[in-house]
């Protein structure tokens, strides 16, 4: 007879999918535990679906989570007995992390593998075998230092992550001292979780540390964590950021929070080419080339200095060409910073093996409860389409439908009402399509920032918003990442990149800087269209973090009556 524990919210299936009942009183503690070793796949109203994957388990193992912790969580919260096969698969994948180990060896690297059959498999593998050479140690191969990244990439594609303990070159020393008071006179020190993340990344200076990813929500101070790692490493540092605004934000923060001076910190971008002991470069300049078959002329920045540390800001956006160069940078300490490790291109395993495994992660809600990020309310407004637009939508191609749904004209009316409701707040209206954004900026009488906006103009508008002179900005997806607008407390999302979980999380992050009062995230969606389906996919990551969307159905009559 099968024992049923009715109060438990978890149903564990033999294919390693997990069904979770949202309204169970045990849902919240379970969700927090699942976030450490499983990925949220679907999140409709009543039952959420998670999946345990090899990568999610390898990240759990790298962060110090034990196999027993995972198995006991499944047992403790399961409504029905857990299939024995699930325990076996969890143990097998967790054991794979550490089965292959990489160490420094005289003149190169030593790849240790205790399992004889696995050694033989690699010896016969057409791609990996050519990178492996005989070693005097019976359970090891010798590997050229140059092939460190290539070997790790090949092994993870085969299903075997490498525990890399080969250590790193020292790099050119650089004295980096943290200030106790910022340039504006504010007291400064790393928060407890920031200090903890630096400690875990550094690992006491041992070979198991010095590479990996720190995951923290926007507004929680990822830049400060990067600065803390710089102060711990005390070496010349290359920082890669998403755009020029992000570069300059890094420069400002470094000068504000360390004793480094302007001569120590440079910008390498489409507008400036400064190579200094700390250099902040854009991904865009690194991936620039004149044609698809040409060389990347700016890749030389990777070798311009004897960098001891490379920081990848928004590592989930790391362009594929930079992965190639990162493969050759395995002798450098590497820190990835992100709010979410979700990559829509499926290259999470490349982040794992080339930058490093996830070392530190904190639930967003935990930071909210402690006041480190703002408390946010998420609202989804499902707006009906006008009759003519519905007819156009019904006969349009699939690609055209996406744009027609995104550009629903009633969204403008609703945005006007929301802006009026938040007249005294700092509001960002963000979207995907430039023509739509231009119309919104015109009607809302607000400045517009897009990728075509000159950097000088962009910086002036951001500064005007920070000072309170401007309280409403219309922005394109260039504002998804790495802009410092601490007073922003309302965001109205009028269109987005299909079902991108990553984008949803980043956009909410624009309003999560600590502040008095609530932050409001409004997502405007055309009802009964593909956009409504995309919205469910977009919300998955934030649902995993504990956010709930309040759903509102809005008709033309509601808007005419001023009902929100």
Can you put this structure into words, describing what you see?
The protein is of the alpha/beta class and 564 residues long. The chain is 37% helix and 19% strand. It contains 22 helices and 23 strands. The strands form 4 sheets. A 7-stranded parallel beta sheet has the order 12-13-11-14-15-10-16, with helices on both faces. Helix 11 links the parallel strand 14 (309-312) and strand 15 (333-338). Helix 7 packs across helix 8 (222-233) and helix 14 (387-395) runs antiparallel to helix 15. The chain is globular. The chain starts with 9 loop residues before the first strand and ends with a helix. The relative contact order is 0.10.
Describe the global form.
globular
Strand order of the largest sheet: 12-13-11-14-15-10-16
Could you say which structural class the secondary elements and strand pairing correspond to? alpha/beta
User: Which bin fits the share of residues in helices?
Assistant: 25-40%
Low-confidence stretches: none
Radius of gyration: 25 Å
**Approximately what portion of the residues adopt beta-strand conformation?**
15-25%
- Tell how many strands the DSSP assignment holds: 23
Q: What is the tally of helical segments?
A: 22
How does the major sheet shape up? Answer: 7 strands, parallel
Q: What is the averaged pLDDT score?
A: 90
Distance between the termini: 52 Å
């Amino acid at each position: 007879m099968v024992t049923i524990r009715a109060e438990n919210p978890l149903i564990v299936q033999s294919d390693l999918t997990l069904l979770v009942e949202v309204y169970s009183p045990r849902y919240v503690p379970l969700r927090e535990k699942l976030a450490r070793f499983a990925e949220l796949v679907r999140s409709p109203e009543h039952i959420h679906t998670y999946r345990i994957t090899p990568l999610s388990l390898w990240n759990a193992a790298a962060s110090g989570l034990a196999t027993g912790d995972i198995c006991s969580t499944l047992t403790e919260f399961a409504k029905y007995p857990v299939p024995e096969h699930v325990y076996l698969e969890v143990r097998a994948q967790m054991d794979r992390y550490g089965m292959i180990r990489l160490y420094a060896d005289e003149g190169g690297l030593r790849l240790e593998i205790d399992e004889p059959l696995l050694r033989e498999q690699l010896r016969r593998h057409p791609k990996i075998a050519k990178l492996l050479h005989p070693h005097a140690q019976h359970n090891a191969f010798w590997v050229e230092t140059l092939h460190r990244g290539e070997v790790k990439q090949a092994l993870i594609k085969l299903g075997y992550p490498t525990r890399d303990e080969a250590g790193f070159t020292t790099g050119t020393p650089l004295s980096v001292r943290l200030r106790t008071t910022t340039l504006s006179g504010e007291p400064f020190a790393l928060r407890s979780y920031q200090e903890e993340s630096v400690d875990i990344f550094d690992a006491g200076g041992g070979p198991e540390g010095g590479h990996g990813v720190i995951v923290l929500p926007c507004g929680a101070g990822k830049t400060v964590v990067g600065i803390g790692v710089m102060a711990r490493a005390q070496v010349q540092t290359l920082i890669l950021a998403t755009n020029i605004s992000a570069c300059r934000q890094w420069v400002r923060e470094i000068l504000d929070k360390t004793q480094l001076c302007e001569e120590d910190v440079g910008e390498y971008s489409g507008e400036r080419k400064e190579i200094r002991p700390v250099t902040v470069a854009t991904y865009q300049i690194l991936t620039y080339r004149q044609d698809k078959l040409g060389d990347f002329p700016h890749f030389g920045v990777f070798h311009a200095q004897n960098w001891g540390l490379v920081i990848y800001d928004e590592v989930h956006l790391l362009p594929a060409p930079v992965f190639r160069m990162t493969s050759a940078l395995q002798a450098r300490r590497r820190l990835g910073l992100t709010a979410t490790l979700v990559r829509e291109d499926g290259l999470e395993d490349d982040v794992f093996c080339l930058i490093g495994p996830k070392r530190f992660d904190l639930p967003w809600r935990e930071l909210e409860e402690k006041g480190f990020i703002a408390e946010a309310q998420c609202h989804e407004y499902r707006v009906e389409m006008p009759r003519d637009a519905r007819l156009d939508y019904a006969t349009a191609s699939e690609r055209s439908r996406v744009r027609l749904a995104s550009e629903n004209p009633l969204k403008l009316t609703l945005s006007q009402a929301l802006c009026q409701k938040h007249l005294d707040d700092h509001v960002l209206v963000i979207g995907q399509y430039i023509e739509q954004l231009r119309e919104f900026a015109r009607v809302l009488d607000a400045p517009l920032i897009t990728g075509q906006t000159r950097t000088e103009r962009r910086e002036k508008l951001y500064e005007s918003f920070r000072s309170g002179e401007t309280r409403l900005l219309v922005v394109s997806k260039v504002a998804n990442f790495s802009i410092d607008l601490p007073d922003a407390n309302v965001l109205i999302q009028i269109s987005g990149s299909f079902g991108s979980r990553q984008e949803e999380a980043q956009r909410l992050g624009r309003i999560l800087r600590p502040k008095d009062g609530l932050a409001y995230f409004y997502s405007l969606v055309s009802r009964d269209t593909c956009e409504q389906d995309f919205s469910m996919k977009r919300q998955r990551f934030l649902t995993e973090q504990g956010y709930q969307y309040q759903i509102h159905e809005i008709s033309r009559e509601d808007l005419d009556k001023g009902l929100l």
